[in-house]
Design a protein that fits this description.
Structural class: alpha/beta
Strand content: 15-25%
CATH topology of the largest domain: Rossmann fold
Largest sheet: 7 strands, mixed
Distance between the termini: 38 Å
Number of domains: 2
Radius of gyration: 21 Å
Order of helices and strands: HEHEEHEEEHHEHEHEEHEH
CATH class of the largest domain: Alpha Beta
Number of helices: 9
Length: 299
């Protein structure tokens, strides 16, 4: 399958990367790693002990400004804390062939969202791992740390290609067996697996951390408009099916899709997975800067 026309453009531009440095992923659970963070944490609720001050520099978190000193000296100082621990963020990216289907393209959208979340995590002092799967889990890099790793992560994502069939359960089971403890694990997928999604989501929930799901669908998958007799080909197993698309069939399709999405929401609620439904109609920057912030996943 050919790459989309804009595949050669950068996944993230410089302006968006600059905005990433002012955000942080918010965990519902207080997750702490074993190593001291490279940057001062932007996460809320850290039980840290005040230690010292330093001069404010552009880009610092305004929540850490000492307004008492500013009131006396009219100078900006940042509070420093004794204990600021890092955590792990694992990006679980679905690279099965179905991710390259639909219009607009799910594959580019998924990589842009992964790049943005990874950049935000790295800028906040978190460790980041990228794990890619189709019919099996295939780690593509070791753990990254620090702002200087952001461009490396983006470059790796830009060079990734889609693979073959989807096998969610063995892939997520393999991830769960080696998942960092107390990590935020973010599954980015269209969840198109003929074997079903309940067991994979249960595995994700039990993988020793906090679980997020970015559920991607394209505009053409949500709102099919083709009418008439069509032969559809499964991009993963290459099988064919002949379908007569009529307004009645399309209406039935939309009803089934609505039930499926509701099932996904219920499963995520049952397994305590924070989920966000994303259409590729919505620009990825709005997904990150608006949708995820509204859900309390970013600040």
């Amino acid at each position: 399958m050919s790459e989309p026309a804009d595949a050669e453009e950068p996944l993230l531009d410089e302006d968006f990367l600059a905005r990433c440095g002012r955000l942080a992923l918010l965990s519902r659970k207080m997750v702490q790693g074993k190593l001291r963070g490279e940057k001062r944490s932007r996460r809320r609720g850290m039980s840290t002990e005040f230690a010292d001050h330093r001069n404010y520099v552009a880009g610092d978190d305004l929540r850490h400004l000492d307004w008492n000193i500013y009131g006396r000296l009219e100078k900006l100082f940042i509070k420093l804390f004794e204990e600021e621990e890092e955590r792990s963020v694992v990006l679980l990216l679905d690279a099965s062939a179905s991710m390259a289907c639909g219009e607009p393209d799910k594959w580019r959208h998924a990589r842009q969202i992964a790049a943005a979340l990874g950049a935000i995590a790295l800028a906040s002092g978190d460790r980041v791992q990228l794990r890619v799967f189709d019919r099996e889990l295939r780690p593509v890099m070791g753990s990254l740390r620090g702002t200087r790793s952001i461009l490396k992560l983006v470059r790796i994502l830009e060079e990734l290609k889609v693979g073959t069939e989807t096998a969610l359960l063995p892939s997520i089971r393999a991830h769960a067996a080696s998942a960092p403890p107390r990590a935020i694990q973010i599954l980015i997928s269209d969840l198109m697996d003929p074997a079903g999604i309940e067991d994979p989501l249960r595995q994700l929930s039990g993988a020793r951390g906090e679980s997020w799901l970015i559920h991607l669908l394209s505009r053409s998958e949500e709102h099919p408009e083709e009418l008439g007799d069509l032969r559809l080909r499964d991009v993963e197993d290459q099988s064919f099916v002949d379908v007569s698309f009529t307004p009645t069939i399309i209406e039935a399709y939309r009803s089934i899709l609505a039930e499926y999405r509701e099932d996904v929401r219920k499963m995520c609620g049952r397994f305590q997975i924070q989920s966000v439904e994303v259409s590729t109609e919505v620009p990825f920057d709005r997904v990150v800067l608006e949708m995820l912030r509204q859900r309390g996943m970013l600040a």
